[in-house]
Amino acid sequence: MSPAATDAGGDLFAANLKGALLAVASSAFVGVSFIVKKKGLRRAGAVGSRAGVGGYGYLWEPLWWVGMVTMLVGETANFVAYMFAPAVLVAPLGALSIIVSAVLAHFMLNEKLQRVGVLGCILCIVGSTVIILHAPEERSPDSVEQIWRLATQPTFLCYAALAVAVSLLLMLYCAPRYGQTNIMIYVGICSVIGSLTVMSIKAVGIAIKLTIQGVNQAGYFQTWMFVTVSAICLIIQLVYLNKALDTFNTALVSPIYYAMFTTLTILASAIMFKDWSGQSASIIASETCGFLTVLAGIIVLHSTKEPDQNLSPDLYASLTAPLPPKIYWHIQGNGDVGKQKEDESLPCDFITVVRQDYFV
Known about the structure:
three-stranded antiparallel beta sheet; 70% helix
C-alpha cells in the first residue's frame, strides 16, 4: 500500500473517530436534557398549570432552560458529527440517548424501568438501527431551488398533506380527549411534525452553506418559506414534547419518540429524494423487518407503562387509604342491640349498616 493511501486511510479513521465521539457526546447531552427538562416541568407544575394540561409556566423555570441549553449543545454536537463521519455511523449512536435518559430517570425521577421495559428499549434500538443501516443514501442537493422542486413533487406533497392532516387530527380531536392517557398522541404529533422539520431544516442548512460559500440564497423566497416551516414545526414539536414529558414516564417517551421520529424521517427523506429507486429486495425486506421490530418494541414498552400520579400526596393517600371493615348492627332475640365486624359469624336477625362511601 502506498504512503498516500495509508495517509488517506488514517485520515478517514481519524474523521470517523471524531464523528463517533461527537455522536456519543451528543447522545449523553440529549439524554441528560430529557431528565433536566422533566425536573423543570415538575417544578413548574407544582406552582402552576402543568404543561400536560396546557400550562406554559415552565418558560419561567430556570431548570427547564438549563435542559433546553443542554439539548441544544447535544444537537449541535450531533450536527458537527455529520461533518466528520457518515450518517450510517452517527445516526445509530443517537439511540444511546434513550439508555442515558432511562437510566437517569430510574435513579433521579423514581420512574422505574421494568425488565420488560428494558426489552422494549432493546427492541426499539435494534429495529431503528436496522432501518438506519439499510436506509438508502440520499443525493445531496446543491441549491435551495433544487430542494424546492423536490419538495413540490406530487409524491412528497401527498406525504406532507397526510402528515399535516394526521397532526391536525391528533392535535384537535385526539389530544383533548386521549392525550392524558395515551402516550402515542403527544409523541405521534412530535414524530410526524419532526419528519417535516428535518426536511425543511436541511434546506435551510444548504442555504446557509451556499451563502457562506459566496452564493447568496437570501434573495430566494424558497429560503424564507423553509425557514418559516422550520420555525412552526419546531415550536409544535417543543410544545407537545413538553406535554409528553410532563404526562408520561420519561423511560417510555424517549425510546418511542426516537423510534417513531427516526422511522418517519427516513420515510420522508426517501420519498422526497427518491432514494428508494435502485434498492434490492433484500434491502427493502431488511428495512421492513426493522420497522416491525420497532413496532414490537413500542407495543412492549406501552404494555409496561405506569401512569404518573399527578395528584398531590395528601389527596392520593386519602383516596387510596383502605376503608374500615363493614359493621353490622343486629337486634338480638332479647331486644339488646349489638354490633360485630364482617369476619364474625352473623345471627339470623340483623340489620346491616354500611358506610355510605363504601360503594364509591
